[in-house]
C-alpha cells in the first residue's frame, strides 16, 4: 500500500515540477535571510557591548535605587563630643528634625532611653537595637546574629569593633571596616556607621511618608482621610484660614512630593500633546485636500505639498523642538509647535491618501444633482473620510503624550524636565517613582480616552486606515 | 403618474427633523468643547512659557538662519564635516536595528501568549496584555534615563529601553493580526492531529508573517528617531554628538548632523514604504 502512495506522490511531483521547486527555492531564501539576521544579531551583540551588561550592572546601586523608590529613612546622628545632643532628621534633611523648634514634632517612639537610664536606644523594625553611649555603640538583638557587638573609639580616636579578632568571618558578615569607619548593614533596612567624629544611623521603613502633608505641615499628624473629615468641621486647625483652604494648600505646597509643581508640569505636558495634535489636524486638513489627485488637478501643487509633508515628517520632532526652543524658550509653545509641525506632515500624508482612496460613486451622485465642485467635496468626500480623520488624530494624541514627555525632558519643561531634575539629585528616587507612575497613568488614560472617543464618535476603537 | 405617498410621511419628517436637530446639537457641543480646550490650553501655555508668544514667532527664523550662514561661510570645506559624522549615524542605526530585532522576537512571543485563538487560559491572556500595556506606555526616555543612571554612559540603556517599548508596541499589533487571521487553516491542521506548535508554524505564521514584517519595518523607522533622541540624553550616537555641538554652538556642524538625520529618516521612510508595499501589496 505504502509503495503505491509513494508512486502517486512521485507522479504528482512530476506533474507540477514548478510548484515543488519553487517551494524549495523560497524555503532556501527564508533560510538565508534567517542566517543573515542571526549573523547581524551576533555582530550587534558585540558592537553594542551587550556582553558588558554584567560588568556595567551594579546590583548595589540598583538595590539602593529600588529601595529608595518605595521606602523612606530617618537619620539619627550623634556627635562624640556631646553624646546627649542627638539629632533625628527625616531623610537627613536639616529642615525636618524631630523634637526641635516650636513645631511640636514629638520624638518618634522607636527612639527611647535604655532601661539602664544611660544609653539611648534606636530600635529598628526588625527589633534589632543600636544603643548609643557616651563612649561606645552597642548593637544588640539583631535576628540571625548569635551575639551582640560593641564599637568603640581607640586612643587615636579611630572607631574599631571590640573583640573583632575573636570573631569568625560568619559573625562579621554585614560589617565593613575601614580605617576611619565601621559600618554595620545586616540588611538594606538598617545601617549603622561609626566615624571618628560621629555616629550615623539610617533607619528605613516602607512607604511614602509625608506623601500628602509634608514634615512641617500643621496637618501632618492626621491621615489623609482624617484631614479630609476635618475640612467639614468648623474648628480651625490654624486660625488664619479655613480648614478646606489649608487642606488644599498643604497638599499643593508639599515640600517632599511637590504635588502642585508636578501636577502643573503634567498639565503642561498634556496641553502640549492636545494642542499640538489640534494644531496638526487643523493644518493638515486643508493641505491634504490640496495634495489629493481627485480634488486638486494641478500636479505641481500636489507634488510640492507631498514633498512638504515628507520634509516636515523627516525633520523629526527632536530637531523641530531644538529650533523652537531657541525661539520660544522653555515652555509648552515649544512642544506644541514641535508636535504640530511633525504631525502636520504625518497626518497630511495619511489624510491625503485617505481622500484618494474614497469611493468615487458618492461624489458622482452628488455631481449628478448639479452640485458645485465645493458641494461635491463637502457631501461626496467628507462624510467618507471624517471617521478616518478622527480616528487618525485621536490615535496620534496618545503617542504625542509620550512625545511631549520627551520634548519636555529636552528642555521644553513639563513633567519630562521635572523627572530629569529628580533623577539628577540622586536621592529623591521616591519622586522619580511617583512621576514615572504619574506619566504611566496619564499615558494609559489618554490611550483609553482616545479609544473611548473613537468608539462613541465612529463606533469602532480600531484604527481605521482606509 | 402620481405615486402614492406613504401614509406616515409626516411622521418621517418629524423624525428627520428631530435627528437633524440632535446632530446639530452634538456637533455644536463638540466644537464648543474643542474651543474651550484650545483657549484653556493657550492660557496654560502663556502662563508657563518663559518667552512670550509674539517674540517667539518673530525669532523663529533666527536660529535656522544662523546655522545656514555658518555653513555658507565654510564653503567647500563643509562636505568633509558631513562625512565625519557618518560613523556616529551608524551607531544610532545599529542601536535601532538591534533593538528592533530583539523587540520583534519578544513581541512575537508576547503576541502568541495573548491571542484568544491560540491560548485558552484567560488569566495568561489578561496578564500578557496588561504587561504589554505597561511596557508600551512608558516613554522610552524614562526607561533609558533610569538605566543610564544605574549603568553609566553607554548605548546599552538605549538598547534596553527601545527593546522594551518595541516589544510592547509591536506585541499589541501582532496580537490583533493573529486574532484577525483566518481560523480555517487552524481547524484543518487540528483535524489531522497537528500539535500546538505545528498549528502555529503551518497555519498562523504563513498568514501573519508579511504583516508582522511590515509592522516591524515601520517600527524600525520609528526606532531610528527614538535612538537619536536617546542619544540626546547620553546614550551615544549622532544624538549625543548633536547635543554637544549645540552646546558648543558649532552652527555648521549642527546643520551637518541635522542633514544626515533628515536624509536618513526620509530615505528610510521611502524604503519602508517600498518594502511594505512589496510585502503586503499596500502601504497600510
Top keywords for this entry?
heterodimer; A: 466 residues; alpha+beta; six-stranded antiparallel β-sheet; 14% strand; B: 284 residues; mainly alpha; MetI-like fold
Structure, described:
- The complex is a heterodimer of chains A (466) and B (284).
- Chain A is of the alpha+beta class.
- Chain A has three domains: 46 residues; 135 residues, no CATH class; 200 residues, MetI-like (MetI-like fold).
- Chain A is 55% helix and 14% strand.
- Chain A is built from 16 helices and twelve strands.
- In chain A, the strands form two sheets. Chain A has a six-stranded antiparallel sheet with strand order 2-1-12-11-10-9.
- In chain A, helix 4 crosses helix 16, helix 10 crosses helix 14 and helix 15 runs antiparallel to helix 16.
- The longest helix of chain A has 32 residues.
- The radius of gyration of chain A is 34 Å and the shape is extended.
- The two termini of chain A are 54 Å apart.
- The mean pLDDT of chain A is 84.
- Chain B is mainly α and 284 residues long.
- The relative contact order of chain B is 0.11.
- The model of chain B has no long low-confidence stretch (mean pLDDT 86).
- Chains A and B meet through helix 2, helix 4, helix 8, helix 9 and helix 10 of A and helix 1, helix 2, helix 3, helix 5 and helix 6 of B.
Write the layout of secondary structure elements.
The complex is a heterodimer of chains A (466) and B (284).
Chain A: H1 2-15, H2 17-47, H3 53-56, H4 59-70, E1 71-79, E2 82-90, E3 111-113, E4 120-123, E5 129-132, E6 136-140, E7 149-153, E8 159-161, H5 169-172, E9 175-178, E10 181-184, E11 190-194, E12 198-206, H6 224-230, H7 243-252, H8 259-290, H9 299-314, H10 317-328, H11 332-356, H12 360-368, H13 373-380, H14 382-412, H15 415-425, H16 429-458
Antiparallel strand pairs in A: 1-2, 1-12, 3-4, 4-5, 5-6, 6-7, 7-8, 9-10, 10-11, 11-12
Helix pairs in contact in A: 4-16, 8-11, 8-14, 9-11, 10-11, 10-14, 11-14, 12-13, 14-15, 14-16, 15-16
Chain B: H1 9-48, H2 53-59, H3 62-74, H4 78-84, H5 86-113, H6 122-137, H7 140-151, H8 156-179, H9 184-191, H10 196-235, H11 238-248, H12 251-280
